[in-house]
Design a protein that fits this description.
With 249 residues, this protein is mainly α. The protein has eight helices and no strands.
């Protein structure tokens, strides 16, 4: 990982975390590279693969729900024509002295053309990410549930497409983030107060989510340490095998 925050450092000994679960399962299967596996080991391995596949499908369902909800919101906002705002309306602050002039300067500023372009840019990015996340979710379902008839084929699908899980995740996440940023520029063309409130809500939400080190550290470090534990088991088994096979001096 390129990030050097404390809760990401645990991944450095393992590598990229996308799909690392299935990669570690495969690596743990025969760490000595003997090519000989008994039926009990294979049965346990296939059970772990089936559990992993079910977890991936459950996660894909969540991503697809988020993506479709984003599309349901952002598409009407994109095609919905912004109605003309009455800058003299008391509900917008036009009732207080110089309120109408202040709102008029805001709403009819030449900068609104740039704001309009920025709004459509982020809304289009939201549509792109949500559409990509939805399509990748369908691909995951088709590949694992329909075109992979047995556990071994499911394992190969997960192994060959381990980055697909991360791409699907980013589709849902960036689709939602782009929508919220696009809403800021959309409200800027309707009401300055709405724009300020939307900006404050997004900033506070991002700070509460990404700035909560206890939550981020608890989830990321726990995952990283579990992956490191499996990695040490693999390396330890390999080292032990070499030490046993080496003749005494």
């Amino acid at each position: 990982m390129s990030m050097k925050s404390e809760w990401f450092r645990g991944f450095e000994k393992v590598g990229e975390h996308e799909g690392c679960g299935i990669l570690l399962l495969v690596a743990k299967l025969d760490p000595q590279g003997t090519g000989r596996l008994d039926s009990k080991t294979m049965q346990s391995f296939f059970q772990q693969v089936e559990s992993t596949a079910e977890n991936v499908l459950s996660f894909a369902t969540t991503c697809m729900i988020v993506c479709t909800l984003v599309l349901a919101i952002v598409v009407p906002l994109t095609v919905w024509p912004i109605s003309k705002v009455d800058e003299r309306s008391p509900s917008l602050g036009g009732g207080w002295p110089y309120g109408a002039a202040w709102y008029d300067d805001w709403l009819y500023s030449p900068a609104m053309q740039v704001v309009h372009w920025a709004e459509l840019l982020f809304l289009a990015a939201s549509i792109f990410n949500a559409f990509r996340g939805t399509m990748l979710g369908f691909f995951v379902y088709a590949a694992i549930s329909i075109y992979a008839p047995d556990t071994e084929s499911k394992m190969m699908v997960l192994y060959d497409n381990y980055k697909l899980i991360a791409t699907m995740t980013y589709g849902a996440m960036f689709g939602l983030i782009s929508l919220l940023i696009g809403l800021i520029f959309l409200t800027a063309r309707c009401s300055p107060v709405a724009c300020i409130m939307m900006t404050a809500a997004l900033a506070a939400g991002m700070k509460a989510t990404m700035g909560n080190k206890a939550t981020m550290k608890g989830t990321m470090v726990a995952t990283a340490l579990n992956q490191l534990r499996i990695g040490r088991e693999i390396v330890g088994a390999t080292v032990t095998e070499v030490a046993v096979s080496r003749p005494p001096v």
